[in-house]
Amino acid sequence: MENFALSQVLFQHYNEYLEKSFTNRFFKHSLIVKNIEKYLKNPYFSVFDSSLSVQEREIFAIKVGKGETKILLWSQMHGDEPTATQAIFDIFNFLSQNDELNFFREKIFENLSLYFVPMLNPDGAEKFKRTNALNIDLNRDALSSTSPESKFLKNLHAKIQPEICFNLHDQAKYYAVGKTKIPAAMSFLAPSFDEERNINENRAKAMKLIAKMSETLHKFIPQKISRYSDEYLPIAFGDFLQTSKSATILIESGFFHKDNEKQFIRKLNFVAILMSFDSIISKYFENEKIEKYFDIPLNKKEGIFDVILRNAKIQTEKEIFTADISFNKVETYDVENQCYTTKDVVANVGDLSNFGAYFDIDAKDFSPIFYENLELEKETSLLKTLIL
Ligand SMILES: [Zn+2]
């Protein structure tokens, strides 16, 4: 099947592979263990290695396939970044099924050895926080490897010596695609291995594969893909591993309007990662040009707000003036009950013509807003009257 046709089929038939036990982002390690047990009944799946987190939750490296090309993928090294973990189990479901895509599955089993670490930071996930139980950011622990979780990943990488690594994260919803006002749905990085951001064989390979994955995703989310800054960060895992024999790719799950639990972004991960396997097997991506990687627009941090009221009238004691007002919806998590509440805060007042928003509203006909209600970073009830 031609590359594009395959991605279409995966996209359209995704629901057949969806792992239904995940319904929101607050799932915990116990669900991961339960799901892994299910797959281990399948002879194609095995536990390659395992270890314990600080609070002694078991971390698994699951092996699938018996091919020559080794690929290592890990997710959720930041406990509050769970999108790709769910996609990994969707991929497990895909690999376990028996349907008209068997030709693709068999190609994967024959050509690739896949090593998945879903949820590298189970203690962080338990509290839905970035760091581990020692408050260490695992993605800043590549060199010192103080945490058992980082040690496990580093040793696992040394044992496997994979050709390609996928480091799977979530990014904040407020990144824009380059200079546009479009939120980044997916973001990629081929991390640097030195201060000069040189391109060696590994990094070039990562760039070409990203170019290919981005081309595939553009069919589903045109203009919504960006590129993460490649500033060298030697203590981060991607940068650290790019100096080894592995080409390393960072995927950041961004955000899509009205997809709060990021289930659509999860689906994009599913398609992008499976299609990357197809590209690796067929070596399609090797013909890509590195320039195509650099053509992906850079992420613009804080380029997007939750809400912008444009041309709002603001009333002071002396006059009425016109300005744009942005708001963000700050979430507070109730991890026990797997839910959250939001409060609206005023983020910015002024000319926001270079910024985008999930709710972009022309407020020129709205009644004036009193300036004392626009204190920055303070909770506001202004949006409630607009039912947003
Ligand atoms: Zn992260």
What is the assembly state of the chains in this entry? single chain
> What series of H and E elements makes up the topology?
HHEEEHHEHHEEEHEHEHHEEEEEE
Which band does the percent of strand residues land in? 25-35%
How many distinct beta strands? 15
Number of helices, where a helix is a run of at least 4 consecutive DSSP H or I residues: 10
Return the domain count.
2
Terminal residue distance: 45 Å
Quick one: CATH superfamily of the largest domain? Zn peptidases
Mean pLDDT: 95
Q: CATH topology of the largest domain, what is it called?
A: Aminopeptidase
Give the distinct bound molecules. zinc ion
The residue ranges in which pLDDT falls below 50 over 5 or more consecutive positions are none
CATH class descriptor of the largest domain? Alpha Beta
User: Would you identify the CATH architecture of the largest domain?
Assistant: 3-Layer(aba) Sandwich
Radius of gyration (Å): 22 Å
Given the helix and strand composition, which structural class is it? alpha/beta
